[in-house]
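Sequence and fold:
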Amino acid sequence: MGHEYQKILICLFLLNIQSFVVQGFALRNCRISLNVALCDGNKLTLVPTDILPTVSGIDLTSNHIFKLQVGNFNNFTNLTELKLANNKISSIETGTFSTLSSLQKLVLNWNALTRLENGVFDGLGKLTDLLISNNRITRVGPDAFKSLQNLKLLDFSGNKDCEPEQISFILKHTPHLTDLIMKSIRLSTFRSSQFANKSTELRLLDISDNPITFFQITTNAFRNLTWLNIGNPPRKLTMIWDIPDKAMVAQVATLDISRVWVNGSQKMWDLLSTFNTSLFSLRMNSMRYNLATVINKSCSIPAVSTLQLRQHNLPFIRSDLFSLCTNVIEIDLSRCVIKRIANNSFTSLSKLKTLTLHRNKLTTVPYAIRNIWSLQKLDLSNNSIETLGCHDFANLTRLTHLSLKMNKITTLQKCVFQNLPWLQTLNLQMNLIADINKAFHTSLPKLKTLRLFKNSLKTIKKDEFNGLPSLVNLSLAQNQISTLEKGCFSGLTNLSNLQLDENEIKSNTLDKDCFIDLVNLRILNIGKNLIRYSPDSPMKNPPFLYLSSLENLDYRSQRFRERAPLPSNFLQGLTNLTKLDFGNIFTVDLPNYIFSHTPKLDSLDISSNDLMDVSPDLFTPIPNLTKLRLSSTNLRSLDFLIKANLRKLEFLQARKNAFAVITKEIIESVPNLRYLDLQYNSFTCNCDNAAFINLTKNSNQTQVFDAYEFQCYYPANEKGKRLLDLNLDDCVIDYGFICFISTTCSHLVFMIAVFIYHFMRFQIAYAYYMLVAWLFDTKNKNRKASNQYDAFVSYNVHDEAWVYRKLVPHLEKNQGWKLCLHHRDFEPGKPIVENITDAIYGSRKTLCVISRRYLQSEWCSREMQVASFRLFDERKDVLILVFLEDIPSAHLSPYYRMRKVLRRQTYLRWPGIGPGEALFWEKLRKALTSTESKAEDRLPLEISGTRLL
């Protein structure tokens, strides 16, 4: 035995060593998501030391870290992305990143760095993206970037005091750099000689927002450049342009010269002609030149096909403005204060495919667009258009995308979209449309996306969308829709996504015939409406009966406040449903087999409902569930998981409930759990939670989110402490001693246990509860304290409406009694049995509200047991029974405790609203007023009706 005991100790010792080596998912200041440690916004001053070394990313954005030093990132051999933006980092020790051999992206934007010393990036041989903008860098060591041989993108913007020669130190060690961004660094001159003389791979150069007065390229450093941005200088300056050889920028296809001034139109032509053979896209926003001159110069370049001309003062577009732009295929005239457009303004644009007139002051659709036969995309959003005419889009037979959002359109005409056979996307959201007027009956055979959200629609009429056979996405959200006529979605056989949320839809509008035509619907959002069904089960016409293809149903946040359970066949027909949102629908009960119609359900959200208890049978039909959200449901435990058979569950979110203990059995019931969120619960800090604490600290599979912030609520001496700080040494079991005792006494214990189980189990259970009652009675007598409450009310949650609307107002407000209600007066974090016992023995009386639901409730049964034990033990008149329903004697036979009490105790029966109600309340007052004399000596109450037994 001694050798065996030593072996056990050795095994325990090795297990303890392993617990230090293997680190779990529980992090004090971070959380893990998709193998990325998210530590952003936690006011950290140091890099955390408990991050898993296997993560592929670390996000430390928006903290208070002042310094990076050697050892901060040891052992992160798999790390590919590190974000340190928006901190207060002023220095980085040489060798800090030396172990990050796999790092590809480093973000150091918005810090306080002033110097980049030699060796600062040592070890980052695979780094491709470095973002170090908006620091205070004034000095770069000659060899600071020596290790970054594979760097492709560098954002050095916002370092306003860095001299140009410092930039040359960067570029000489980055031969594969393709994207260089140096916006707003107070660069006044730009010379290609500042760059390496050898050819580079640079494709993008952004030096915008700089006060450049001299721009010169005299070397071949930019012969592969395709994107050049030198626009938006911070103030009015004249730029000298010096590129003697066009071959040095022969590949530039996109040029941004917004707000650039080069001293005269001839100089501007010299600038543009530099890119004469290659320029494809030209951005000239907020130019100070005569716009017509600029446009004509630009359009004379044969290759130019895209013009961005935003933010000009152009209230009227003349007919000759684009006369030379015959090769242009895209024009952007956003924010140009356009009020009118000459009818022939776009006649010469024979190749134009995209026209953007966003955010101007147009009041009607311009007649000029009818001349653009080639137009495919038209953006008229954010104007002041009030009406649409039948010929507004005449001749636009090639149009595929039309945006009219954020105008003032109030109605549509039947003919408005005629002759648009290729239109695929139509945006009409955020207007004032109150009537569709059959605008979608026959004219849009190719339309796939129709957005009508945030309008003033109230009724969707029959055959409203009958002419949209190809429609896939339809958004009618945030209107005032209260009526969906039968057949309103007829013809939409290809519709996949329907958004009806935030309307005024009621249950009498929504039935099985409403969606009968949507045979291919995959996503349906009907949340935030006024849908409420009576709890009659089953329904005659389930609303989703014909939606067998539906995969995602959003039914959350129905806007009514009266609690009611859902019908058991509410989801009938949804045989392929995988995601369901039942959050905040004000239900107090979910029928056990409501999910029997959704066998493929993978994700379920029942958060923000006052369920209090969940039956394991609820999940029997959905064994493939992997995501479950039940936050703010007033649940007292997760014990239902033990029998729920959710072995595939990977994600569980149960915030803001009343969990006190997470047992080992609960943990073992979900073996595939990857993410557990139990924030804001009332944890008990004792050995009952030892298994949960060990899981949190040591599991490499399950991440318990924010576990180090879990606080103790019970016992009182531990309240306010952190759960994971609990010392578990006292919870360790001496396995050697247990083995010795169990081996010696096993036969005897087994025989005694069998004997007790077969012959004395009921007597022992009764004796135990009598002992508990006697102990609490003795304790209360010793204290000699008056009762805290006049009566403890024991009731079932389904009778909560009667208790709060009838009983509580009459007893507390009218008669002045002080009641104890479990929703209101139970202590959070305290075991429920102790709460019940303290409430009963802390009240003069116990008032039981009896109904059939009450008799079937496990917790109500326990409350009844404790109250009856007190009655039999003290022999005092401490128990009052109020029957809300007529329950025949035969129905009480399974409830032995209730029958025994009724033989010795008078009861009251609720007569309902009527003449007998006043007498009922008077008799109940007498029952509460009676002294605590012995039960057999007290005068019986006069009641209406006869005894059940």
Observations:
- Residues 475-601 form a domain with the Leucine-rich repeat, LRR (right-handed beta-alpha superhelix) fold (CATH 3.80.10.10).
- The chain is about 20% helix and 15% strand.
